[in-house]
C-alpha cells in the first residue's frame, strides 16, 4: 500500500488557504520520496501565523498559487491513502482550496490520522501532539514547517507499522465537500 503523508500551513485563522505544503510518500515501511512547496495564498497573513510558520507575504510572493500548484501535486496526492497529524485540519484546508479555485475533485478521500495511531500505539505518552511524538520517538522536527511536519507524520505511520498495527482499521473516508469524516 502507498501512503501520502502531508501537512499544510495556513496564512491566517480562517484556515481556508495554504501558504505551504509538505508531502512524504511511504511505500512498504519507508519514505521513498518527499515534495514541498511554498504557496501564494492570495490573501493576508496574520501575525500569529507569521510567528508560527515564519511565512509572510514577501516570502510567498513569487510562489505558485494553489491552482497553479495543483497539477504538480495532484498525481502524488491521489496516488495513495492520505495521512496527516490531526487530519481533519489538513483535509479541511485542502477542501477549501479545491473549492475556492473550482478544481474538480473526488468526493471521498481515504485517510489515516496519526494522532489516533499515536494514541493507540503509545497510550503512555503525555499527549500526542506532533512535537511530543517526535521527541518521544527521537525524530528530528522543525515544527510548523510543512516539509518537516509531513516527514515526521510519515515516520509516525511507519512506527505504527513496526508495532504491527493493521492500518486498514485506522483508515477512514473524508467527504471533501462536506468537510467531515464519513460515518
Number of strands: 7
The number of domains is: 1
Q: Average pLDDT across residues?
A: 97
Radius of gyration, taken over Cα atoms and rounded to an integer in Å:
16 Å
Named at the architecture level, the CATH assignment is: 2-Layer Sandwich
Uncertain residue segments = none
Shape: globular
Order of helices and strands: EEEHHHEHEHHHEE
Number of helices: 7
Instruction: Tell me the major beta sheet.
Output: 7 strands, mixed
- CATH homologous superfamily placement: Ribonuclease H-like superfamily/Ribonuclease H
Task: Characterise this structure.
The chain has 183 residues and is an alpha/beta fold. The protein has one domain: 2-Layer Sandwich (Nucleotidyltransferase, domain 5), CATH 3.30.420.10. Helices cover 38% and strands 23% of the residues. The chain is built from seven helices and seven strands. The protein has a seven-stranded mixed β-sheet. A hairpin with a 2-residue loop joins strand 2 (20-27) and strand 3 (30-38). Helix 5 packs across helix 7. The longest helix is centred in the C-terminal third of the chain and has 17 residues, at 146-162. It is globular and about 45 Å long. The two termini are 23 Å apart. The mean pLDDT is 97. Keywords: Exonuclease, Hydrolase, Nuclease. One of its GO terms (molecular function) is 3'-5' exonuclease activity.
Considering the chains and any ligands shown, give keywords for the structure.
single chain; 183 residues; Nucleotidyltransferase, domain 5; seven-stranded mixed β-sheet; 7 helices; 7 strands; 38% helix; globular
Amino acid at each position: 500500500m502507498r501512503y501520502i503523508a502531508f501537512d499544510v500551513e495556513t496564512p491566517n485563522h480562517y484556515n481556508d488557504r495554504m501558504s505551504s505544503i509538505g508531502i512524504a510518500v511511504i511505500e512498504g515501511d519507508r519514505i521513498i520520496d518527499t515534495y514541498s512547496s511554498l504557496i501564494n495564498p492570495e490573501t493576508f497573513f496574520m501575525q500569529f501565523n507569521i510567528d508560527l510558520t515564519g511565512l509572510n507575504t514577501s516570502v510567498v510572493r513569487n510562489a505558485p498559487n494553489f491552482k497553479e500548484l495543483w497539477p504538480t501535486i495532484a498525481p502524488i496526492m491521489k496516488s495513495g491513502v492520505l495521512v496527516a497529524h490531526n487530519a481533519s485540519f489538513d483535509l479541511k484546508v485542502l477542501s477549501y482550496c479545491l473549492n475556492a479555485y473550482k478544481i474538480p475533485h473526488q468526493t471521498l478521500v481515504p485517510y489515516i490520522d496519526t494522532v489516533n495511531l499515536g494514541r493507540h500505539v503509545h497510550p503512555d505518552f503525555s499527549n500526542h501532539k506532533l512535537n511530543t511524538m517526535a521527541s518521544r520517538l527521537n525524530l528530528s522536527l522543525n515544527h510548523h514547517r510543512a516539509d518537516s511536519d509531513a516527514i515526521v507524520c510519515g515516520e509516525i505511520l511507519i512506527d505504527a507499522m513496526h508495532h504491527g498495527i493493521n492500518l486498514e482499521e485506522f483508515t477512514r473516508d473524508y467527504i471533501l465537500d462536506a468537510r467531515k469524516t464519513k460515518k
